[in-house]
Design brief:
This protein has 220 residues and is α/β, with parallel strands linked by helices. It has a single domain, classed as TolB, N-terminal domain (Rossmann fold, 3-Layer(aba) Sandwich), CATH 3.40.50.10070. The chain is built from 6 helices and 8 strands, in the order H-E-E-H-E-H-H-E-E-E-E-E-H-H. It has a 6-stranded mixed beta sheet, with helices on both faces. Strands 5-6 form a two-stranded antiparallel sheet. The longest helix is centred in the C-terminal third of the chain and has 21 residues, at 195-215. It is globular, with a radius of gyration of 19 Å.
């Protein structure tokens, strides 16, 4: 094992395998709420006004500038990742977009709740970009690595509270700077990721975690 790590450091000193930084929390009664049908809303760049929030939101210190499509990219990745998993139902993104265009909903818990009710969802997922900085370079070498931070909140439509929240924050680092991240070799490969790829990696980790919580068998 030590020989493998040493070899990887020699060959890939300029590559990246950063494991990411995912924090999450959820309501103690999440499993009992029977959340099965979920709508993914267009992401916001600031927090919704939902109540009883266990959100991991932090101040938006680096809003997307050159990457103006970052919020839409995040929404598409959340939807595609959630829709690919079994044992829950994800409302079609076209249906949610149609409802969202019907009227100028305010950006508030009321908006989330009303859209959720109109598409018969148990909960709505909202993503917010906090930082989206593209790499300067390519897959094999960078002057500046990709750096991404975002928050995902799952809001109970009936009660209007945030019942699960996750925050992903990573600036990719070389293996030589973060030896503990060598386990990500099998998932990311020996390369520097783009901001979109780094976002996709974080979304997958967060959604996989939520899926395990919502679909695991209830305790006997």
């Amino acid at each position: 094992m030590l020989k493998m790590i040493a070899l990887a450091l020699m060959v890939c000193a300029g590559c990246s395998f950063g494991s990411g930084n995912l924090q999450s929390k959820y309501s103690t009664d999440l499993e009992s709420r029977r959340i099965r049908r979920i709508a993914v809303l267009p992401p916001e760049t600031h927090a919704p006004a939902a109540t009883k929030t266990p959100s991991l939101e932090r101040p938006l210190t680096e809003a997307p500038s050159s990457q103006k499509d970052a919020p839409e990219t995040l929404a598409k990745q959340i939807y595609s990742t959630m829709a690919s998993l079994p044992n829950w139902q994800i409302v079609a993104d076209t249906e949610v977009q149609e409802v969202d265009r019907m009227r100028p909903f305010p950006n508030s818990a009321a908006r989330l709740r009303e859209i959720g009710e109109m598409v018969f969802a148990d909960a709505v997922m909202v993503g917010r970009i906090q930082r989206f900085r593209e790499r300067v370079g390519d897959d094999w070498g960078v002057k500046s690595p990709a750096s991404v931070a975002f928050v995902l909140d799952l809001v109970d439509v009936r009660r209007g509270d945030v019942i699960w929240s996750a925050r992903f924050d990573e600036t990719q680092k070389a293996l030589s700077e973060n030896i503990l991240a060598i386990g990500d070799i099998s998932q990311r490969g020996v390369r520097w990721l783009s901001a979109e790829q780094l976002t996709r990696d974080g979304v997958k980790k967060a959604v996989d975690q939520l899926h395990q919580i919502l679909t695991r068998a209830p305790s006997s």
